[in-house]
Amino acid sequence: MTFEQLAFYFFASVAILAAAMVVTVRNPVRAALFLILTFFAVACIWMMLEAEFLAIVLILVYVGAVMVLFLFVVMMLDIDFDQLREGFAETLPIGATVAVLVLLQLVIVLTSGPFELEQVAAPVPAAADYGNTHQLGLLIYTYYVYPFELAAVMLVLAMIAAIVLTLRDRTGTRSQKPHEQTQVKRKDRVRLVKMNAEKKN
Predict the structure, then answer these.
(1) Which residue in 39, 33, 32 sits closest to 11, CA to CA?
(2) How far is CA 143 from CA 106, 148, 155, in A?
(3) What does the alpha-carbon distance between residue 112 and residue 114 come to, in Å, rounded to a whole number?
(4) Average pLDDT value over all residues in the chain
(5) Which terminal residue of the chain has fewer beta carbons within 10 Å of its beta carbon, N or C?
(6) Cα 110–111–113 angle (5° rounding)?
(7) From its phi and psi, is residue 123 left (phi > 0), alpha (psi between -120 and 50) or beta?
(8) Euclidean distance between CA atoms 7 and 11, whole angstroms
């Protein structure tokens, strides 16, 4: 077994174990940290596949931005996680059935048809001056431009929906009203008072 195979099996094992810990640990902060470990392991696998750009983007975007936001939200919100887990036992059979069906589909797809390892040729090593950023941009903005734009529209809609759900009027809370703030005039906020000066002895 070569060093590349050992490294692949190591990072794949770390990714699988960390992903399993994400959905099994009780502490949400630890779950987020295990998810960061999963991203790191997957980024290492992408580096081995000569997808350096995707690996760096995964670290910078997901680990550096998204997961930090998740940690802030989890630590700042007062969520009763015990109440959220009350219906876990009732939905466990349905979730286990769906997981088994998905696993069977993956096994069928990977063991039949063009996905068999014997039918896939070994990848040719790229040249030293090869960069996958150009090739990735060429594919995204030519062959997959419509799915790329559709994904962008879906993300924008999801962002708008999250803002609308978050900014709904709730009793007992204060909220800003930008349309009223922009119409405020100086006389509404500032009042000049003229007072006679007093002489001190």
Answers:
(1) 39
(2) 26, 10, 20
(3) 7
(4) 82
(5) C
(6) 85
(7) beta
(8) 6
What radius of gyration, in Å, describes the C-alpha atoms of the chain? 27
- The enclosing H or E element of 122 equals none
- Chain segment 33-69, per-residue pLDDT in tens: 899 999 999 999 998 888 888 888 888 888 888 888 8
Type of residue found at 95: G
Tell me how far CA of residue 10 lies from CA of 16, 45, 80, in angstroms: 10, 10, 36
The CA-atom distances, in angstroms, between 74 and each of 2, 25, 65, 79 are 42, 14, 14, 8
Degrees (nearest 5) of the Cα angle 186, 189, 190?
Answer: 75
Mean pLDDT for 145-163 is 91
Two tokens at 155?
């993300």
How many helices (H) does the chain have, and how many strands (E)?
10, 0
* Sign of the dihedral through C-alpha 147, 145, 161, 67: positive
For the stretch 93-127, pLDDT in tens is: 888 899 899 999 988 887 776 666 666 677 677 77
18 contacts 34 by C-beta, under 8 angstroms: yes
What pLDDT shows up at residue 45?
A: 92
Query: In the prediction, which pLDDT does 15 show?
Result: 94
